[in-house]
Amino acid sequence: MVGNIPEETTSFVGRAAELARLEDTLGACRLTTLVGAGGVGKTRLAVRAARQAAPAHRDGVRWADLSPLQGDGPLVATVSDAVGLAAHTLRTPIDALCEWLTDKQLLLVLDSCEHLRPSCSHLLGEILTTSPGLTVLATSRQPLDIKGERLIEVAPLPVEGVADALTLFQDRARAADPDVTFDAPGEAEAAAEICRRLEGIPLAIELAAGGIGRHTVEQVAARIGSRFDVLTDASLWPPRHRTLRTTIGWSHELCTPLERLLWARLTVLRGDFDEAAAREVCAEGPLTEDGVVTALRGLVAKSVVKRDGGRHRMLDTIREYGRMWLAELGEEPSTPRDAPHRGP
Ligand SMILES: Nc1ncnc2c1ncn2[C@@H]1O[C@H](COP(=O)(O)OP(=O)(O)OP(=O)(O)O)[C@@H](O)[C@H]1O
Ligand SMILES: [Mg+2]
Fold this sequence. Notes:
single chain; alpha/beta; Rossmann fold; Arc Repressor Mutant, subunit A; 5-stranded parallel sheet; 10% strand; globular; binds adenosine-5'-triphosphate; binds magnesium ion
């Protein structure tokens, strides 16, 4: 039984050493946390590690995505849903969850814990004590700081030697423009330069590769170079975040004004959403309902929004940038809300 691990819809690159280490750690420790900056690849690594570890767990792997949760209120309910507990009981939700897990032998993945660290720590303290067969893999931009937590730092993809970062750039560039070959003079060097500038951060690399087709590899490299230099001294951000912001800012510049407006307005939707929800929530003023559909396709093409079948999703780092833009536009950030759901 594999459970509800998210499907992967794009190629996976590298991480062999990390996966070998995770295999050992998940076999030996009750709680492992993958820690690293936004967009560095924690979730993607957790998906692979969870799939690899599934056969070792009698009751499989259960995956709880905590990124859409705005506060800790729905945490226990979200984890209960993830493990398949139908909560019809007079007991407190946490007691019901502990009881349900008591005799289970499963791997629970808590993805994106950083904004709910105290509540996650409390919950994990309880369930790890009452369920001896439970193993937890968490991802977080910050450690959870729980006794017994084994931390694994997720670094960006290597840019020298095996250069997995370059492989990722080439894969995503080919997806954006099937005609790009990296055979033309200067193209391969420009691609390597982009990966170095972006410090191997997968999210940043995907965003940059999303520009291929409308721009040549050399143009993308030149653009990133100049933006990076401008921002190097000016910011208080640690370099990795600074680079990421630079990259996102650059993606933002590539968008049409209506795409930017949609990007900003989409940030009020929590979790994933379909096209109808985007139309319903974001169409107003210059952005008509048809305009939302066109702009949404544009954002997908630029890797700002991910599409998986009919569902759309924005990475947290990208959403944060959109929120800043929403404030700049002078639109009151409305209360975050769940995407309206239709059908099954
Ligand atoms: N090894 C990899 N191979 C291919 N794509 C990758 C790899 N690692 C990350 N990516 C891609 O890079 C993007 C960012 O990765 P991911 O979402 O895992 O980052 P994260 O560290 O979980 O970020 P956040 O802190 O915002 O949750 C995703 O689109 C992901 O698919
Ligand atoms: Mg993540």
